[in-house]
Amino acid sequence: xxxxxxxxxxxxxxxxxxxxxxxxxxxxxxxxxxxxxxxxxxxxxxxxxxxxxxxxxxxxxxxxxxxxxxxxxxxxxxxxxxxxxxxxxxxxxxxxxxxxxxxxxxxxxxxxxxxxxxxxxxxxxxxxxxxxxxxxxxxxxxxxxxxxxxxxxxxxxxxxxxxxxxxxxxxxxxxxxxxxxxxxxxxxxxxxxxxxxxxxxxxxxxxxxxxxxxxxxxxxxxxxxxxxxxxxxxxxxxxxxxxxxxxxxxxxxxxxxxxxxxxxxxxxxxxxxxxxxxxxxxxxxxxxxxxxxxxxxxxxxxxxxxxxxxxxxxxxxxxxxxx
Length: 323
Hints:
CATH superfamily of the largest domain: SGNH hydrolase
Helix content: 40-55%
Number of helices: 12
């Protein structure tokens, strides 16, 4: 009996050691605005990542400034957080001094105040948190179209250089605020401007060796194949639960180069409530349920569309490398 007990304990210990050997942690930094904040998007991505990658611990940190772009993040010192592993206290203090000067000249600059309030505890706890990021996500907004080079194309490489110097992988999260539909479509969307934008994003990704979450293309495919679905709120210009789910699926594809098809996650909950004076915190901005649970068909379609869009984008960027 003692020998059997010993063997049983040895087997259990061996299994435990193997499990620990398979465990992996990814430290992921999300830099963006409300297109990252809404629906706690990084947490939805975390749930998908951990569900699809057994043994993975997906640790997320968000640096969010509402309505701001990467250029604003640079002004506010977010690059210092990207450089957490080796940034100096002197560099942080210099940024804090600059923010204080900004607030002296513009007392109502709430972004400068928010950045100051973020960087002070960051400096206070710097040594205990020194570790490289594994992944840095750079969200675009209204800075990735129009003039060439775009502001996104100017600032994404600056952040990427810092991230990649410590071994982090960079992911470009391309948002599409101008093409999300609030009503069901009766005619297919125009793909021409979408593909023009995607070629620019692909060229930028190739330039800085970054992964991409190409939501302009993925949204266009969704609008074509499922025109009955809406991708933004009627009473709020932000992505709705459907678009958030579609985005998280595309993140999964970009992070792991694998299809999200078959993942069991079936719900997304927004963080903003209806503004009708009722104080009802169970309804979203359009008066629907704050939490949307997707049908099996909708979940399967959104997962398939995300994978299809990501694959098409990969072919596009490969074509730019090898015309």
